């Protein structure tokens, strides 16, 4: 069973691990301590104290508040509210639905047809970091990417109670 | 000569870390020398290695070299140049629009050489560093179509400009590869003329090579790779080879050094196409097996080579091995012939792990290689390997590994197998080790069976030949229940691959794509026309072969030519190689004979009822082989003694855990056995380089050629 030191996991997170090492990790069995090491590194990097329960996406975490609430929180500290609700609903949105706006990010003729597909970009109201992008038809409901079953994940995969 | 041995043949295998030298005498006896490889001046490593080998026969390089009649080199330095991307600065000119060959790599090169699980695991796929960076690739407008007609003329201005630009960037070689140039080389030839004009004007002597001149075959990407590697890695290697050759001559040798090429023959170091020698080591065993078949009168052999990292398999049918036309090596597709061999990532050094999700044993694909396993503390390996399990079971003698040069730690093996395998499975450590070995052998068995059955043959018609350091150790497990006609283990199994290289012919093998359709209802006149076209291509290949041999001072009259025709049914995708005994095709009857042979071959490889002559045939390639007689090793031949081994060969008994039971195994010293002896299982025959395990219910007969015959049910 492989084990990796904290430094290796840190460079994995930063994307600075040499390819051969990264591939070796991908091709091996998952190291049993990975989740805890990974979360510990992220915990050290955020400027706030709330305990990270699960990394949700780039820049986003589900954290434990002192009052018992479990909320989605950004790197910058902005809180989106309870994780059972889609955080995107309280994010800032920018929609690219014209050739003009699409061509700010794509060369001409290499983007989707705005009559069919739009790009919806979600930004953090606290730090303006782009958190997610959806490519969807007009009027498509806001996608709820991921609502984890935290209790089961902790009890059955990590082998401890939340 | 002071020595009792008269050295005749020298074979050098220069690996990445060690250079092995084999010196063979007129009776087939041989010695092996080892020395560290000296990459900066390979001649030095080779010389030390030869000195080491000859010291066993109490002779010296100066004394022995003049009596040698032939010398063969195989090595990995060219392959390393390719792997490390340390070669010449090459500029490439292709058909306009195709400039991204090296970045796209036809997709497949991003996962070549991966294990099956990683091939499915897409996020592990990764492009290689391009052989030639994009800024050194130029596209020139032109197009030859699939029929060989010029659809777009060559843009001469753009052609000249491309050459000029590449020269300004300081390239050391230029390779030209246009689409369908194997159909019609006109544009490549025109391109070469233009390039030469530019070179002359600029006073430059950069070599320009065109694909149709070297590798006139279908498949533009493998063809380009081969041409590029030739300029990139092969030419620098030639410099090294020349220095070895002149060093050998300085020490009194009278022969030209030859190199092992991937098609199974040896070629001159002055050969025009040195990329053909990129991979040679692993095929040595197959060449040796063919040589052995020819000598002991066996036609069908299944070759198995169990090494530290891999299990290599090859089939010899009717005394001939198959040749692949588009092999891959070092994650690169090539258009050169390679002896067909399958390699599975399971060897005696393979790691053994318990999958935490399924709680099942998994073997490989990675391995400890020469570092053996946890039982060799100096190797710094902390994962259990097959070797460790063999040590636990008592199959490997920890005090006699590599003749005692290395002492293995049985306690450590027990501990690691216990901790890593037995404990998670909740079973006894011996049961666990035995289970791992059974699983390992079953895996190998399945591979053997699928290869044989996949070709439409059955084990009962084949002789299983086992070699490699781990071959004799596990051959019993593989052969059990398979019903092979014979099971043979040469006493020199550990050095068989390297030895095999010295058994190869002096042979050039060139091929060219033809794509000639042969309709089912074709007239005699039309057949005559096809025969002429095949012969025309042969004449082109023949000229190349004669030219190559002339570099070694061989006259055309001494060369034995043979035409092989690769063909398939019209509309099918895989071709088969029909080996004729002809030097030229002679009239429509010879074409009929080739087609008849193809039908027979197809019926053997697939099924009688799958033959479909009504589709017509397609001659895809014509292959010409030119061979010249050279000195090959003699098969050892000794007087036969009786059944009973001499008493001093016995090393007593040892407890061995065999499939759930503790058994007493007789231990024998291989070098003290006499030809004619028969040993009953369970026995273990130890030699410095390998260990032969004879399972219970089997016996091993040592014949007059020093080959063990493993036979079921024959006790003493």
Describe the structure.
The complex is a heterodimer of chains A (162) and B (716). Chain A is α+β, with helices and mostly antiparallel strands and 162 residues long. In chain A, 27% of the residues lie in helices and 25% in strands. In chain A, β2 (60-64) and β3 (70-74) form a beta hairpin. Chain A is globular. The model of chain A has no long low-confidence stretch (mean pLDDT 94). Chain B is globular, with a radius of gyration of 27 Å. By secondary structure, chain B is α+β, with helices and mostly antiparallel strands. The two termini of chain B are 43 Å apart. In chain B, the strands form nine sheets. In chain B, strands 13, 14, 15, 20, 23, 24, 31, 34 and 35 form a nine-stranded mixed sheet that branches. At the A-B interface, α2 of A face loops of B.
Question: Any descriptors?
Answer:
heterodimer; A: 162 residues; alpha+beta; four-stranded antiparallel β-sheet; three-stranded antiparallel β-sheet; 7 strands; B: 716 residues; Nucleotidyltransferase, domain 5; Dna Topoisomerase Vi A Subunit, Chain: A, domain 2; six-stranded mixed β-sheet; 17 helices; globular
Question: What topology does this entry show?
Answer:
The complex is a heterodimer of chains A (162) and B (716).
Chain A: H1 6-14, H2 19-27, H3 34-45, E1 51-57, E2 60-64, E3 70-74, E4 79-82, E5 92-96, H4 99-102, E6 117-123, E7 130-137, H5 150-158
Antiparallel strand pairs in A: 1-2, 2-3, 3-4, 5-6, 6-7
Chain B: E1 7-14, E2 18-25, E3 30-36, H1 42-55, H2 61-64, E4 70-75, H3 77-83, E5 90-95, H4 101-104, H5 116-120, E6 137-140, E7 143-144, E8 150-152, H6 156-168, E9 173-177, H7 186-202, E10 208-210, H8 211-214, H9 220-250, E11 258-260, E12 266-268, H10 284-296, E13 301-306, E14 311-317, E15 320-321, E16 323-324, E17 328-329, E18 332-333, E19 338-339, E20 342-344, E21 350-354, E22 361-367, H11 386-393, H12 410-425, H13 429-454, E23 463-467, H14 471-479, E24 486-490, H15 496-501, E25 506-518, H16 524-550, E26 560-569, E27 576-579, H17 587-605, E28 617-628, E29 650-658, E30 661-669, E31 678-680, E32 683-686, E33 691-694, E34 698-702, E35 707-712
Parallel strand pairs in B: 1-4, 4-11, 5-6, 5-9, 9-10, 13-23, 23-24, 30-32
Antiparallel strand pairs in B: 1-2, 2-3, 7-8, 11-12, 13-14, 14-15, 14-20, 16-19, 17-18, 21-22, 24-35, 25-28, 26-27, 26-28, 29-30, 31-34, 32-33, 34-35
């Amino acid at each position: 069973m492989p084990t990796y030191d904290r430094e290796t996991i840190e460079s994995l997170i930063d994307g600075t691990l040499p390819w051969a090492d990264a591939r070796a990790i991908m091709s091996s069995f998952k190291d049993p301590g990975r989740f805890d090491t990974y979360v510990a590194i992220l915990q050290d990097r955020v400027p706030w104290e709330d305990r990270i329960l699960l990394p949700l996406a780039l820049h986003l975490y589900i954290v434990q508040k002192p009052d018992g609430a479990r909320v989605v929180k950004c790197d910058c500290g902005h809180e989106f509210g309870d994780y059972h609700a889609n955080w995107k609903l309280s994010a800032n949105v920018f929609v690219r639905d014209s050739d003009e706006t699409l061509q700010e990010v794509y060369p001409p003729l290499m983007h989707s047809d705005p009559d069919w597909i739009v790009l919806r970009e979600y930004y953090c109201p606290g730090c303006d970091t782009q958190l997610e992008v959806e490519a969807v038809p007009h009027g498509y409901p806001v996608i709820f990417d991921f609502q984890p079953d935290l209790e089961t994940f902790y009890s059955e995969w990590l082998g401890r109670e939340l | 000569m002071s020595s009792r041995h008269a050295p005749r043949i020298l074979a050098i295998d220069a690996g990445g870390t060690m250079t092995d030298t084999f010196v063979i005498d007129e009776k087939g006896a041989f010695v092996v020398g080892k020395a560290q490889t000296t990459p900066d001046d390979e001649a030095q490593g080779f010389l030390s290695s030869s000195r080491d080998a000859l010291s066993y026969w109490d002779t010296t390089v100066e004394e022995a070299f003049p009596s040698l009649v032939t010398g063969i080199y195989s090595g990995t330095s060219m392959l390393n140049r390719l792997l490390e991307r340390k070669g010449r600065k090459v500029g490439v000119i292709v058909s306009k629009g195709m400039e991204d060959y090296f970045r796209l790599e036809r997709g497949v090169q991003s996962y070549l050489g991966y294990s099956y699980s990683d091939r499915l695991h897409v996020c592990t796929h990764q492009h290689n560093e391009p052989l030639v960076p994009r800024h050194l690739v130029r596209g020139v407008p032109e197009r030859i179509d699939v029929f060989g007609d010029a659809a777009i003329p060559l843009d001469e201005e753009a052609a000249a400009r491309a050459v000029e630009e590449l020269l300004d960037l300081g390239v050391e070689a230029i390779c030209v590869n246009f689409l369908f140039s194997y159909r019609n080389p006109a544009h490549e030839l025109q391109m070469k003329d233009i390039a030469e004009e530019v070179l002359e004007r600029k006073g430059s002597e950069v070599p320009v090579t065109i694909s149709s001149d070297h590798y006139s075959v279908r498949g533009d990407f493998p063809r380009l790779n081969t041409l590029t590697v030739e300029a990139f890695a092969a030419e620098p290697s030639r410099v090294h080879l020349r220095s070895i050759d002149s060093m050998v001559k300085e020490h009194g040798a009278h022969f030209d050094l030859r190199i092992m090429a991937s098609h199974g023959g040896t070629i001159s170091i002055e050969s025009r196409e040195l990329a053909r020698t990129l991979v040679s080591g692993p095929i040595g065993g197959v060449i040796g097996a063919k040589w052995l078949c020819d000598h002991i009168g066996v036609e069908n052999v299944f070759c198995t080579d169990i090494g530290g990292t891999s299990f290599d398999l090859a089939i010899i049918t009717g005394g001939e091995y198959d040749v692949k036309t588009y092999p891959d090596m070092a994650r690169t597709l090539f258009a050169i012939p390679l002896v067909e061999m399958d390699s599975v990532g399971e060897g005696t050094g393979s790691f053994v792990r318990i999958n935490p999700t399924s709680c099942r044993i998994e073997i490989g694909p990675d391995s400890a290689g020469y570092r053996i396993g946890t039982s060799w503390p100096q190797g710094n390996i902390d994962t259990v390997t097959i070797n460790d399990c063999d040590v636990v079971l008592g199959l490997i003698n920890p005090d006699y590994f590599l003749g005692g040069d290395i002492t293995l730690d049985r306690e450590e093996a027990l501990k690691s197998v216990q901790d890593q395998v037995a404990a998670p499975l909740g079973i006894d450590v011996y049961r666990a080790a035995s289970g791992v070995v059974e699983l390992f052998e079953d895996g190998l068995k399945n591979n053997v069976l699928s290869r044989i059955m996949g070709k439409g043959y059955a084990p009962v018609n084949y002789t299983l030949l086992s070699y490699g350091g781990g071959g004799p150790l596990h051959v019993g497990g593989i052969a059990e229940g398979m019903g092979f006609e014979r099971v043979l283990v040469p006493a020199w199994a550990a050095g068989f691959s390297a030895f095999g290289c010295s058994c190869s012919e002096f042979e050039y093998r060139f091929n060219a794509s033809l794509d000639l359709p042969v309709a089912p209802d074709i007239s005699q006149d039309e057949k005559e026309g096809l025969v002429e076209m095949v012969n025309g291509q042969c004449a082109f290949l023949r000229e190349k072969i004669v030219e190559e041999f002339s570099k070694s001072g061989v006259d055309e009259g001494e060369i034995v030519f043979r035409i092989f025709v690769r063909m398939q049914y019209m509309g099918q995708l895989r071709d088969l190689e029909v080996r004729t005994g002809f030097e030229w095709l002679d009239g429509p009857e010879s074409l009929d004979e080739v087609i008849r042979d193809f039908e027979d071959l197809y019926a053997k490889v697939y099924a009688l009822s799958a033959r479909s002559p009504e589709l017509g045939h397609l001659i895809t390639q014509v292959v010409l082989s030119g061979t010249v007689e050279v000195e090959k090793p003699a098969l050892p031949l000794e007087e036969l003694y009786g059944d009973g081994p001499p008493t001093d060969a016995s090393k007593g008994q040892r407890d061995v855990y065999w499939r759930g039971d503790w058994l007493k195994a007789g231990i024998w010293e291989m070098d003290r056995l006499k030809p004619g002896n028969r040993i009953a299982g369970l026995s273990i025959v130890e030699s410095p380089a390998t260990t032969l395990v004879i399972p219970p219910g089997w016996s091993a007969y040592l014949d007059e050629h020093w080959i063990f015959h493993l036979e079921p049910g024959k006790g003493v």
